Amino acid sequence: MATIRLGDIAPDFTADSSAGMINLYDYIGDGWGILFSHPADFTPVCTTELGTAAKFKDDFEKRNVKMLALSVDGAASHAEWIKDINETQNTTVNFPIIADEDKKVSDLYDMIHPNANSTLTVRSVYIIGPDKTVKLIITYPASTGRNFHELLRVIDSLQLTANHKVATPANWKPGDDVVISPAITTEDAKGIFTKGVEEVKPYLRMTPQPNI
Ligand code: BEZ
Question: For ligand 1, atom 1, which residue shows the shortest CA distance?
Answer without folding.
Answer: 45
